[in-house]
Specification:
By secondary structure, the protein is α/β, with parallel strands linked by helices. The chain has a single domain, classed as 3-Layer(aba) Sandwich (Rossmann fold). A seven-stranded parallel β-sheet has the order 3-2-1-4-5-6-7, sandwiched between helices. Strand 2, helix 3 and strand 3 form a beta-alpha-beta unit. It is globular, with a radius of gyration of 18 Å.
Amino acid sequence: MAQPEYLHNLFSLSGKTAVVIGGTGVLGGAIGVTLARAGAHCVLVGRGEAKGQENVEAVEAVDASAELFTADATRREDLQKIADHLVAEDRQCDVLVNAAGINSATPFLEISDDEWDRIFRVNLNSVRQACQVFGAQMLERKVAGSIINIASMSAITPLSRVFTYSASKAAVLNLTLNLAREWAPHGIRVNALSPGFFPAEQNRKILSPERVEKILGHTPMARFGEPEELAGAVLLLAAPGAGSFMTGHNLAVDGGFSAMTI
């Protein structure tokens, strides 16, 4: 018979602090609720103040603890202020989730330098900066922490039409593997989470009816994922009990998308 106390301890984040970059979005908000329900104090970071406040209220609605920082994930100064705030509050970043991201479906020959740079700045450079800022804090304070970088199925095999997004997410996956090797001796685990197709701001605008039909036809479960269906994967990667020997892994939650051929 299952032992509730054992399961609780395995996935518990009690006493931990989680920083979710992109926590004002749909998936980032759901990840924040998951981490908070497991016992973590959740710091949601993003530019959307109204949506961010809704996500904070969603955390508080389950009797958990969260706070919102309206910040630009691409600005190192903004991230450093959050790290300094944690120290001032006698906290530290135990779990870092890099979930900020943007997309486009511009034909390849029409991709401008500005668009390429903007997407890489949000999707990749924000991850680098957050890992530097909060990773430095983990190293300095000898935190056995977890970093979860949100990659994409397109990081593995690029999807059609999303050239810049695919390239940036492939780079996120590469950076994840590199950091996992570098920081494993310090007790810092670095993993990637690659969602399949979930309803989120960054992909709604590129999902034409024809594209949706193709996606669902290539997804054995024949549906989109719901944000709450990332919860188990997030807890596995975040929890020091359940995920203690996991680092350098890319965990796909995709309804079977990656298993499909013809």
